[in-house]
Amino acid sequence: MGDWFQILGQKGLGVFERLGRGCILFYNILAGLHTLIPRPGLVIQQVYSVGVLSLVIIVVSGLFVGMVLGLQGYNTLVDFGAEESLGIVVALSLVRELGPVVTALLFAGRAGSALTAEIGLMKATEQLSAMEMMAIDPVRRVMAPRFVAGFIAMPLLAAIFSAVGVIGGYFVAVDLVGVDEGAFWSQMQDAVDLHDDIYNGVIKSLVFGVVVTWIAIFEGSDAIPTSEGVSRATTRTVVHSALAVLGLDFVLTALMFGEI
Amino acid sequence: MDNNNDIVVKVRNLSFSRGNRMIFDDIDLDIKRGSVTGIMGPSGTGKTTLLRLIGGQLKPHAGNVYVDGQDVKNLNHSRLYQLRKRMGMLFQNGALLTDINVYDNVAFPIREHTDLPESIIRDLVLMKLEAVGLRGARQLMPSELSGGMARRVALARAIALDPMMIMYDEPFTGQDPISMGVLVRLIRLLNDALGLTSIIVSHDIQETLSIADDVYLLSGGKVVGHGTTDELNNSKSEWAQQFLKGLPDGPVPFHYKAPDYAEDLLTGTDGRQDRRR
Amino acid sequence: MNSRQVEIWVGIFVAAGAAALFMLAMKVSNLSTYSNDEGYLVTAKFEDASGLKVRSPVAMAGVRLGRVVDIKFDNETLEAVVTMSIEGQYDTLPKDTSASIYTAGLLGEKYIGLEPGGDDKSLKHGDRIKLTQGSMVLEKLIGQFVSKFMTEGDGDKGDKGDKK
């Protein structure tokens, strides 16, 4: 029984240890950001890696999510005779929640795990160590550009997700189930507020971008330098990112939309 | 005769442990400028750790490491990085950046640390590659190189900024005789031609002794032998003799610590009484 | 993929993201109905402003003229003081315009409906609308209805005399 307690305590301390290392890494990345200003090429290359290459999954997912929202929303609203409000349901669900959150989850799975694997592999093959010995700080050269790229790419991807989703919802609503096109857009425009909904959605995706990219980079740099270690780190990235995004989403939603 | 300028790396009273294992126990080392120094010992004695301590990637728990007069552990981030520009390091597996080709790998430190135009960089890279005999391989990707070639490219990269010293981490391990011969020749040649100081960490006796001016033998966290090749070969130390001659048994025992043989067979692995007899 | 191609793709990506944001802002949100360049401020006091929010619409004849910008409480008259911003182009509202709080649709949001009076002087910045009608709270309506029902029917409906 005491053994079990000790293991729990050790795991607990381990969690704090990792959190501490993560925060130190975060600080070091921030402290090194200024070195990227004369070298935008590094960031651009990474925006391509995490952003452009995620476009396909984001667009396809956004389209389908939007269409499903259209269908499900219709099924529920039609019972209240309120199917003209379908535009509101689709738009608000996407812009406030599904856009930022689902994009963040997909990003963690696609780009986050790739980042972790890449950095973990560089650690395992001593490339990071070699860079250190060449007097090139791997935090500034390798990790900081990827961090900035995640921060830039995430809100753009979330916006694309929401926009494509609305279009998908539009097609289902107007072409499939026959909601009036004018009502669809006008009701939506009345209900979706630029400040409350769209800005908040953007802020959410910025926060998620920071958190997911930070976790991905940290797990890669903290991985045990063996093939098993890297694979476990990749899994941890996806799991921890998902938990963090969903938890933060609750907090942010409560803060932003709580007073209504 | 032994003024500071002659000694590039001075290690004094160095102690370092990992967990409960004492890797280094109060050791002293001197690496003379312009020499090829071998640091040898059985696997696991922490030879790579020593290189990391010299390069400042690890901090000693006690004692000091002085590189070119500066105490490595007291250097702040930027000073440490300045010092590292003058050190080259060759990792066991080359540690080339896998997503860029040979040319870009060698050019990497030059591009990162200088503002030289591409035309001059090209000349520099080609010169370094020529020195290791791989100028024709410049377009290959690291995945297309054999182990020996990868190490040579890494060597070209290590001398890219004309450092004052190079550290080799097990350069001969796992090499076929020809690549071995090439590397051995290169290390000595570059050391003399470029006025470098070389530190070779290895357990390949023949190769290391063939080019080293000065050799340290490490075991159990202590220096158990020091001198030139001849001095060591004639050394009275049992340990040195076992190591240099590759004898299976001696101060480093063949058998891992275990209980008495006969008893072990009769009583079973976890000490239970076996009732078969 | 050389660096020029990478740059082009990244440029396309950022442009697509910006276009998506733009589309969301324009077609999806109320930005197009948001042009609040020069509005003039007008106040009105209501007995009951339940359900009215900042940014609730202000309309006359079914056309949105402006928005609510502030809702405060008057400590002396114990009424709600609502400040609204009316777009500059609508400057012919008579000084005796009345303001009432209505509900859009059956369960929709509250908005302020303005009805024109007959004054030839127009409302200007800082003026106060004097005639107001507070929002109709559902419970009060039902209560009014029930008590009206009760007072009309006497005698045999006496057992329904207990209040809810």
Key features of this structure:
heterotrimer, A: 260 residues, mainly alpha, 85% helix, B: four-stranded antiparallel beta sheet, 10 helices, 10 strands
Question: What can you tell me about this protein's structure?
Answer:
The complex is a heterotrimer of chains A (260), B (277) and C (164). Chain A is mainly α and 260 residues long. Chain A has helices spanning 2-32, 40-50, 55-77, 86-124, 127-133, 138-176, 181-191, 194-222, 227-257. In chain A, helix 3 runs parallel beside helix 6 (138-176) and helix 4 (86-124) crosses helix 7 (181-191). In chain A, 48% of the residues are buried. The model of chain A has no long low-confidence stretch (mean pLDDT 91). Chain B is α/β, with parallel strands linked by helices and 277 residues long. Chain B has helices at residues 47-55, 77-84, 102-113, 118-131, 147-158, 177-193, 205-211, 229-233, 238-245, 261-267, and strands spanning 7-18, 21-32, 36-40, 62-67, 70-71, 87-90, 165-169, 197-202, 214-219, 222-227. In chain B, the strands form two sheets. Chain B has a six-stranded mixed beta sheet with strand order 6-7-8-3-9-10, sandwiched between helices. A four-stranded antiparallel beta sheet of chain B has the order 2-1-4-5, with helices on one face. In chain B, helix 6 (177-193) links the parallel strand 7 (165-169) and strand 8 (197-202). The longest helix of chain B has 17 residues, at 177-193. The model of chain B has no long low-confidence stretch (mean pLDDT 85). In chain C, 25% of the residues lie in helices and 30% in strands. Chain C is built from two helices and eight strands, in the order H-E-E-E-E-E-E-E-E-H. The termini of chain C are far apart. The model of chain C is unreliable at 158-164 (pLDDT under 50). The chains are: A mainly alpha (260), B alpha/beta (277), C alpha/beta (164). Chains in contact: A-B, A-C. At the A-C interface, helix 2, helix 6, helix 7 and helix 8 of A face helix 1 of C.
Any idea what the radius of gyration of chain A is?
Answer: 21 Å
Biggest interface pair, residues each?
Answer: A-C, 32 and 26 residues
- The number of helical elements of chain C comes to 2
Residue share in helix of chain C: 25-40%
Question: Which residues of chain C form runs of ≥5 with pLDDT under 50?
Answer: 158-164
H/E element order of chain A: HHHHHHHHH
Largest sheet of chain C: 8 strands, mixed
Q: What is the averaged pLDDT score of chain C? A: 80
Shape of chain A: elongated
Q: Cα distance, first to last residue of chain A? A: 49 Å
What's the rounded overall pLDDT mean of chain A? Answer: 91
User: Per DSSP, what share of the residues of chain C sits in E-state strands of 2 or more residues?
Assistant: 25-35%
In DSSP terms (H or I, runs of 4 or more residues), the helix count of chain A works out at 9
Q: What percent of residues of chain A are in strands?
A: under 5%
Q: Which sequence of strands runs across the widest sheet of chain C?
A: 7-1-4-3-2-6-5-8
Low-confidence stretches of chain A: none
Q: What is the oligomer described by this structure?
A: heterotrimer
Element string of chain C (H = helix, E = strand): HEEEEEEEEH
Query: Helix content range of the residues of chain A, please?
Result: over 70%
